[in-house]
Amino acid sequence: MGMIDWDAVQTAEHVQRGEVSAVECIEEALLRIESTNPTVNAFLHVDGEGALAKARFMDHNLTREAKANLPLAGVAVAIKDNMVTTDMPTTAGSKILEGFRSPYNATVVELLERAGAIVVGKTNMDEFAMGSSTEHSAYGVTRNPWDPNRVPGGSSGGSAAAVAARMVPLALGSDTGGSIRLPASYCGVFGIKPTYGRVSRYGLIAYASSLDQIGPLARSVRDLARTLHLIGRHDEKDATSLDVDTIPESPIPTALQSLRIGLPEEYFGEGIDIRVRTLIEKTLDQLRESGADLVPISLPHTRYAIATYYLIAPAEASSNLSRYDGVRYGLRVAGDDLIHMYQKTRQEGFGSEVKRRILLGTHALSAGYYDAYYLKAQKVRTLIRQDFDNAFAQVDLIVTPTVADLPFKLGERDLDPLQMYLTDIFTVTTNLAGIPGLSQPVGLVDGLPVGLQWMGPPLSEDRVLSAASALEAILPPPEWPLSGGIQE
Amino acid sequence: MTNQYEVVIGLEVHVELKTQTKLFCGCANAFGQDPNSQTCPVCLGLPGVLPVLNGEAVALAARAALALHCTVNSYSKFDRKQYFYPDLPKAYQISQYDQPLAENGHVTIQPSDGKRDIGIERIHMEEDAGKLNHLGQRLEDAEGSLVDLNRAGVPLIEIVSRPEMHSPEEARQYLVELRTILSYLDISDLRMEEGSMRCDANISLRPLDYTGSLADLPRVEIKNVNSFRNVQRSIEFEISRQRQLLQTGQRIVKETRGFDDASGSTYSQRSKEEANDYRYFPEPDLPPLVLSETWLQNQREALPQLPDELRQHLAQRGVAERDVEVLVQDLNLYHYWSQVVELVPDVRLVTNWLLSDYSRLMNAKGLNFATPQVSADGLASLLTLITSGTLSGKMAKEVLEAMFETGETAEAVVKRLGLSQITDRNAIKEIVSAVVAANPAVVQDFLSGKEKALTFLVGQVMKQTKGQAKPDLVNALLREVLAAYA
User: Fold this and answer.
1) ipTM above 0.85, yes or no
2) Residue from B264, B262, B281 nearest B82 by CA
3) Which CATH architecture has domain A1-488?
4) At what angle do helices B376-387 and B410-417 cross, to 10 degrees?
5) Testing the interface with A: which of B24, B285, B286, B289 to mutate, by most A Cβ within 10 A?
6) What local confidence, expressed as pLDDT, does residue A404 receive?
7) Tell me, what's the pLDDT at A486?
């Protein structure tokens, strides 16, 4: 097994023991990016020089003891381009932020760097995280490393593709309605959306503030756990950040015999690709055979989830994106007067999907419509949360498919935004309820990955990770796209 | 339709809170600094930033609410008020919409027809916007505009009165009393010219036979008038403008108007029909503001003595009603007064001196009681010289003026000018006897009933003592000596 196959924990252990240098780790990642990124287009920006300089500093200046205290020593990490960084540009996949350089780092970036991780680049995404395919970036589509004609999922498609193509062992994504778990599923990697408030949002460019949450994408459950252990800290710069104990650094696989798992009927109905259903059911059988108690449950308000999500998220987005007005930073397109400058800047700076959601959200908040749309959606959101409360009174965890189908072809859903929105149908509920959700690769069908989703009560990340770890142990090791990369 | 109208006025007052830092970030809350020097990613509204509520601002706002007799809500929340403007970096202002910090208070005013409470509908917290400096007159036709965001994020409270004032004078009284109360709390600079206190006035004329809801009357809002006097002037203008419109059968348009200081008139800014839809919704980045009863109790206990309590206290000390108001309006003056009264218990004497001669000298020098020219101790020793009879009132005035000029103590001035009053009974009696002996004709006049003759004799004695004899003593001794002639 070569360096390319190491997960983040393995990489850090090698660096800590002095068996490989941080520079070697970063060089490996850069080489891999050089060979595969032209096809995949996972990265918007790669800072090879900067990353190597940090690696050299670590190699030359840190003692072995110092490195032993860095849980991610020398680990190359990719950051979704909606988390601000001082060393690299931050665009959120939008033309309106072209050339923008933040004067401060996102809290998560600070925490990862403090743990020895080295940021090598910023990854592509649907503009402002609005999308399920990473086709809505102002900087070109990202391709699925399993099949370059297919989408990687979105919006954290760049991060998922970078991990799947083994350019980096670890990446950060953000998840507002499924944006970590969906691309994790489509790319065959692990990804977790933590409990709302677990990870600081300071420095995350807001899409929908009450739903956004940062989380890791990786090639093993333990990498997710170690990363979440490091970034899941209370942050006084984020008033919605929870002041709770961080999760354990390493999950202990759950004894599956002790686990009561709920299978919500609403997530196993019609509309699921038969190949996905077959593989998920096979996995459920394996859980059952290992002694887990699988019980049918109901989450009756699930059918309102997409409608609810597409009122709340665009409403908040319409407000969050107002600041991109051309006055202080980013794109400014000259106009005849102030209003004209606003109009031209936003007209040229935002892509069509962003404009669609700004319009949706602006309408939902307008005088005379607020009660019928936004307020009503908030009430339904409460009902969806209560569904989960009721369910978790009966079961420890819930399992569903992450997404109803296999990665679709580029451009396939371009003309039908509604069909695109339905891609998120199994993932949006955890955002609305604020609970953790994890997508785990469970195998391939027709050469394309399938993901299974774990959902748990608020702050149950340790339980979710332990269960995923137990399943990981009984499944064959995940496969990765052709070992030499797609080009070969 | 009647030609008789009742004036209906409601005021919205914005007050900047004097906190160490801004409402949602750690930037210094300081006035008059270099443009954009008091800013950070949060108040600049950069991508990715989040607000964190400043606890000091909540405490100051709650104290204002309690002092204005409001109910402070144990649960309130923040909302986003959305509009595009270059001085508003996020394109929304974090404010409080439907669940404000406090409600249902009042301010007592004293119009000629007796005391009345003007209701306060609500007090809410919000962040201030930045400032634009136009290279030209107005944003619309400016060559360019410079944005200074030092003020962006400074904490404000907005105090919304009920529409319960009926004349410009009542509006003025409300503002004066409101500012007096807030000044006691020391939570704001309260300077209208610097914008730390700002006032918008809503004015409508209600036909006396109108029975509908006040909210349905066409209302004109006058924005951002920069002094109490101009608030009063703008309301006066607006009343006559509206009255004239109504009396000539025209309609009043619901709109926002500005006030032009030079002409004393208001002008249309924008009509409410084309006003913004602010699309308020709950601020998702801030949890609701939940205040415990203990916390509120602490704020209640932190309240200083308030104007009404002081009024009562001063009345009990025997200060005349008119003087009470002067003391209540100027806390520095009152503090000075209390220090002097501690040393010289004659409340009337102290109050008279302080409010007349001392204040006149202070005004002449353009000083206020935050930095008194003569210390309370200094004034007290001067007044003690009066009560002990060493100085006459007239002499004391001269001494005080010298103290103001040179900074000397009262004793030093008295000594330097040789001013001390002669109170030695025997010394005066000797002079009195001599004067009486030297003026037999005048004495005769007095004895024949001409009281005026006595004044002449007093004058003679004063002349010989260079004015230093104690006048009432001279009087008494003269009568005593003259009695022997009768």
Assistant:
1) yes
2) B281
3) Alpha-Beta Complex (3.90)
4) 50
5) B285
6) 94
7) 46
